[in-house]
Amino acid sequence: MKTLKDVISLKFKTSESEGVIFHGEGQQGDYITLELKKAKLVLSLNLGSNQLGSIYGHTSVMTGSLLDDHHWHSILIERHGRNINLTLDRHMQHFRTNGEFDYLDLDYEITFGGMPFSGKPSSNSRKNFKGCMESINYNGNNITDLAKRKKLEPSNVGNLSFSCVEPHTVPVFFNATSYLEVPGRPGQDLFSVSFLFRTWNPNGLLVFSNFADDLGNVEIDITEGKVSVHINVTLVKKNRIDISS
């Protein structure tokens, strides 16, 4: 396929922060990749480069944040030559690609939800998308409908289900005065806690626990947007350990 114009749209939701949403590449060095990186949306595009380096076509644009919230997000990519409109949840970003070429020359198939292993370093370091997509439309073709009716030829549909499974996690909302107290485990010499959290507040207490026999306490909090762990031990000279990230 050699196109001057492209219109690609889809909706997705996921609880993963990394994953390839779609990818296509050609023998001329052209490629287009839409993926999640650190829960942000990244569109990478190359309409052609030359080996001398005087024409460098790689262009990468990042938009959005916290897209791993398992809510539906809509994407629209409109390309006319080197002019691109990237719309995420009705927020549009306009940019022009690097280089001098206008056509996207894709010799191979386009893959949704991942990218085939090509032996290149770029392919084995990227994760496949894990989540739900709907309303996938590529240049007027309803990919979701065609895949469901098995009308895509040639195609390789791997382990797809045409339903969206909800995650089993149950979120808990805390306001400024609420807290959750759970029983401790006496006689254990290991303290282990893990959780996911999301907040707009730069400060707040996440976890607090006293050790048994007045041996001290551990505290995990957010201070000015950074997570800090404070361990107070009463029986040693260096009685306080602070870790910040």
UniProtKB/TrEMBL annotation:
Pfam families: Laminin_G_2. Coiled coil: none annotated. SUPFAM superfamilies: Concanavalin A-like lectins/glucanases (SSF49899). Residues 1-164 form the Laminin G domain. PROSITE patterns: LAM_G_DOMAIN. InterPro entries: ConA-like_dom_sf, Laminin_G, Neurexin-related_CASP. SMART domains: LamG. This is CNTP2 protein.
